[in-house]
From TrEMBL:
GO CC field: plasma membrane
Compartments, as annotated in UniProt: Membrane
Record-stated family: Belongs to the methyl-accepting chemotaxis (MCP) protein family.
Stretches with biased composition (Polar residues): 286-307
Region (Disordered): 286-308, 520-561
GO molecular function terms listed in the Swiss-Prot or TrEMBL record: transmembrane signaling receptor activity
Coiled-coil residue windows: 455-493
Top-level taxon of origin: Bacteria
SUPFAM superfamilies hit by this protein: Methyl-accepting chemotaxis protein (MCP) signaling domain
Protein's name in the database: Chemotaxis protein
Broad class of the protein's primary localization: membrane
Amino acid sequence: MVVVSLAGSALSLFNFNKLEAASAMNVHTYEVMGVADDMLVNMINIETGIRGYVASGNEAFLGPYLEGRKEFRKAFDEAKKLTSDNPAQQKRLTEILELTNKIEEVDQVLIKLRKEANAIGSTQALQAYFGAAHDKVHMDRFRAVEAEFNQAEESLLKVRSEQVRALSSSTLSVLIGAGALTVLLAIIAGFAITRSIVNALGGEPAAAAQVAHHIASGDLTVPVPLKNNDRDSLMASLATMREQLTTIVRGIQSSGESISVAAGEIATGNTDLSQRTEQQAASLEETASSMEELTSTVRQNSDNARQGNVLAENASTLAVKGGEVVGRVIDTMNEISDSSNKVSDIITVIEGIAFQTNILALNAAVEAARAGEQGRGFAVVASEVRSLAQRSAAAAKDVKDLISLSGERVQRGTHLVSEAGQTINEVVQAVRNVTDIMTEISAASSEQTTGIEQVNQALSQMDQVTQQNAALVEQAAAAAQAMSEQATELRSAVGIFKTAGGIAHPAPVARAAVVVKTAPKPAPAAARSLPAKVPPRANKPAPAPSSSFKKEEADGDWETF
C-alpha cells in the first residue's frame, strides 16, 4: 500500500512539474504577445504623431512621435530578450527593426520638408513627397510581420494548452487509480491488522480494557485471564504489570513509613541543634562585646604610651639643651679661672714694681740725707714715694689674696659644674633610655591593638557564620517537616492501591513538632554574663535508623558538629 501510494505520488509529482513548466511557458507566451502589442501601439503613435505634424506644422504633435520611438525601442529590446530561444521569432524581430529604420528615414525627410514649408510658406514639395506614400509600404510590411509574430506565439500557446489539458487528464487518472488501489489495500491491511491486534491482546479488547480499568483504579487483586503458553500478549503484560505494581506499592508503603519516622527524628535533632546554635551565637556576641571593651582599654593604653613617649622625647630634648648650657658654663668658668691666673700674675708684677720702688725710694732717702739741706725736699718726695710704694704693695697683696681666694672658689665651682655636667649627661642618657622603653611600649600597644582588632574581626566572622548556620538549621528543620508531610502524602497516595493483603491504609505516624526560633539578641555588655559551659560528652558512632531518637545521641552528634 505504501509502495502504491509512493508510486502514485511520484507520478503525480512528475505530471505536476510538467504542468508547472507548461504553465510557465504559457505565461511567457502571453508576455511576448503583450510586448508585440506594445510595439504595434507605439508604432501607431509614431505614425499618428508624424502625420499630425505634417498636416498642421505644429511641433506639439512631435510629442507622441518622440515618446512612441522611445517606448517602441524598450518594447523591442524586451521582445528580443524574451524570444532569445526562438530563432524564427528573432528573424522576424530583425526584419521589424529594419522596417522601423526605413520608416524613421521617411519620417525624418517629412519633418525636414515640413520645417522648410513653415519657413518658405509653401507646402508643395511636402505634399508631393507625402502623397508618394513612401512610408505606407514599410508600414504595411511592419503590420504583416507583426501579425506573423503574434500568430506564431498564438500557435505555441495552443500547443502548450493542449499539453496542459493532456497532463491534467493524465494526472487525474493516476490519482483516481492510485486512490482506488490504496483503498483496496487499506481494506485488506485493516482485516490483517485486526486479526494481529486480537492475537497481540491475548483476548477480547473489552476484557483487556476491564483489567486495565481495575489496575488504573488501584485494584491490584483483579485476576487476568490468560491463554495457555501466552507470554507475549497484552494480557500477559498486564498480568506482569499487576504483579510488579503490587511489589512496588508494598515497597513504597514500607519506605514511606521509614521516611516518616526518619523525618521526625531529623526534625527533633534539628530543633536541638538550632537551640545550641542560638546559644553559641549569644556566647559569641558576648565574647565580641568583651573584646570590644578590651580593645578600647588597650587603645587607651596605647594612646597614653604614645603621649608618654612624646613627653619623654621632650624631656630628653630639654636635658640635652641643659647639658649644652652646663657645658657652656664650664667653658665660662674655665675662662674666668684663666683670667684670675692672669690677674694674679699681673699683681705679682705690681708687687715686684712696688718692692723695687720702695728700694729706690729708700735709696733716694739715703741720698737725700747725704745731701743735707739741698736734698731735704727730695727726701720728703722719696718718703712719700716710699709710703705710696708700701701702700701699693699692701694693696697688691690684698688683691692677690682676694684673687687667690676667687681662683680657689672658681676651681671649686668649675669642679661642681663639671660634676653637674656629668650628672646632666647621665640624666640625658636615662631620659633616652626611658624614651626607648616608651617607644617599645607604644609599639607593643599598637601591635596589641591590631591583634585584638583582628580577633574582633575573627569573632565577628564567627558570629556571622554561626548566624548562617542557625539559618541553615532552620531551613533543614523546615525541609525535614516538608519531607515528613510529603512522606505522609506519599503513603496516602499509595493507600488507594488494593493488594492481596487488603487495602493499604497508611498508619498514623507521630510527627515531631519543629520549633523554629530566632536567636535572641544579647544583653548590653554591663549586664551580660557568660552562659554556662555545656559539659563535653563522648562521641558515639552513628546508630542505625530506629523508631526512637535519644537525647544523648543528639548531644553526641552536636559535639561532633
